[in-house]
Amino acid sequence: MNQISINKSFTGNQLKFSHQSDVLNCEMIFSVYLPPQAEEKSVPLIYWLSGLTCTDDNFVQKAGAQRYAAETGVAIICPDTSPRGKGIPDDPEGAYDFGLGAGFYVNATQQPWVEHYQMYSYITEELPSVLAASELPLQTTNASIMGHSMGGHGALTIALKNPGKFKSVSAFSPICSPLNCPWGEKALGNYLGSDKKNWAEYDSCALIAKAKEKLSILVDQGDADNFLVEQLKPELLKAACEKAGHPLTLRVQPGYDHSYFFIASFIGDHIHYHADFLK
Question: What is 2-278's CATH number?
Fold first, then answer.
């Protein structure tokens, strides 16, 4: 780990690091907010997974999460959304919804993506190992996970596929069923191939039906979100949870869109929600 920057925030520290990822075969950047309590003891952590086109900076600079992390004594880990750098393949047409900035938190199996696009393993295995081996005062086995849009999809699927690894999970405006929306069809079709049985391994609604752990899910969704009907489909997640008896709190927030104005309005609720499980 190489420290890139440090900024004081709410008496804690916002840090940015780089490291060479063996899983993604490139240099990766991630950010860590350490609350003031970390000066005296190790602290639990929350992973934040960002959405399409984002880097770690979007959440760090726009969400206003540091205040609430400082209040509750939790660290926040913000990885990037895809591998990056020279030689990393991108969408052939330069579209925003696939390739760079759009790793979808899956392990690609198809060429030319398989060599670098292993974001699922990076989030679930390599990054936690990097943090555990560092000198950062983190309780790396006492963790929760949350995310937005593509990152909401990532947070939900990763939590569902890894029982016991996270204390809680939440999402803002998640892509609830990549099997049933254009973003998902494009990304999973390219990363995983044409067999939709493989797609189901990264679809929250499909995973709910066979979840071994009934981890309570908190979702906030704005009803003025321009992606709501075509891409996000929270009604499918609600139906899947009701059928499986899986605990879900789905809050539809009137007038809110898909932006970080929405996230900043409710991020305090999510951090306090996770902090209660991480005590």
Answer: 3.40.50.1820
pLDDT at 128: 98
**Type of residue numbered 253:** Q
pTM for this model (two decimals): 0.97
Q: What pLDDT is stored for residue 104 in this prediction?
A: 98
Residue 28 has a pLDDT of: 98
Q: In what order do the strands lie in the sheet with 75-79?
A: 2-9, 12-21, 26-34, 75-79, 43-49, 138-148, 169-172, 217-222, 248-253
Which residues are catalytic, by number? 149, 225, 258
Q: Domain residues of the chain, as ranges?
A: 2-278
